[in-house]
Design brief:
By secondary structure, the chain is of the alpha+beta class. The protein contains eight helices and seven strands; from the N terminus they run H-H-H-E-E-E-E-H-E-H-E-H-E-H-H. It folds into two domains: about 40 residues, no CATH class; about 130 residues, GTP cyclohydrolase I, C-terminal domain/NADPH-dependent 7-cyano-7-deazaguanine reductase, N-terminal domain (GTP Cyclohydrolase I, domain 2), CATH 3.30.1130.10. The strands form two sheets. A five-stranded mixed beta sheet has the order 5-2-3-6-7. Strands 1-4 form a two-stranded antiparallel sheet. Strand 2 and strand 3 form a beta hairpin. The radius of gyration is 21 Å and the shape is elongated. Bound molecules: zinc ion (ZN). It catalyses: GTP + H2O = 7,8-dihydroneopterin 3'-triphosphate + formate + H(+).
Length: about 200
């Protein structure tokens, strides 16, 4: 009998919703106003969406044409949540690789960015994750990512640096070691601060 009981999901108040109510109340917000009545539920739902993992399967193909030049997708948009303030940051990633024996479906480069951005993040980790994922899944000659983002924890609070863009990069293989390949990658991913996003 206890197995049956354990299998039934508990029905009751949503702990996340209750926590939002407690947080807002502790901060002095009067949730009695009609327009705020449903706010805890909406906030809990919004954070659930932002924290939901993004799963996908990598589709790779044999490099039948022997492509050994840079394959680059620019301006892939992403949204994430800063792990220090729980505030959103967002921007674009430019992602490229020099194929080895396998090539990747181009849309999967966008999937890698979106999957890497999920969860509580810092921009540096997203950038590293993208480059490392490509390196591990494809075993390419080289891989790299440049990420440009605006952090609302920097623009709407604290230093209030509205319009500041943060750029991070991670390069692996020939894009790190070969000066010409590296220069080409950096030149082709350079947009001068979020230009690719606007
Ligand atoms: Zn932050």
């Amino acid at each position: 009998m206890s197995i049956v009981n354990d299998a039934i999901p508990a029905v009751g108040p949503d702990p996340a919703e209750e926590a939002v109510t407690a947080l807002l109340t502790a901060l002095g917000v009067d949730l009695g106003e009609e327009s705020l009545a449903d706010t805890p539920r909406r906030v809990a739902a919004a954070y659930r969406e932002l924290l939901e993992p993004h799963e996908f399967t990598a589709t790779t193909f044999p490099n039948e044409d022997g492509c050994d030049e840079l394959v680059l997708v620019r301006s892939i948009p992403f949204q994430s949540l800063c792990c220090h303030h729980l505030l959103p940051f967002f921007g674009v990633a430019h992602v490229g690789y020099v194929p080895g024996k396998r090539v990747l479906g181009l849309s999967k480069l966008a999937r890698v960015v979106q999957a890497s951005a999920r969860g509580l993040q810092i921009q540096e980790r997203i950038t590293t994750r993208i480059a490392d994922w490509l390196t591990e899944e494809l075993d390419p000659l080289g891989a790299g990512a440049v990420v440009e983002a605006q952090h609302t924890c920097m623009s709407v609070r604290g230093v209030k640096a509205v319009g500041a863009w943060t750029t991070t990069s991670a390069v692996r293989g020939v894009l790190r070691e070969d000066p010409h390949r590296r220069e080409e990658f950096m030149r082709r991913t350079e947009s001068g601060g979020g230009v690719g996003w606007r």
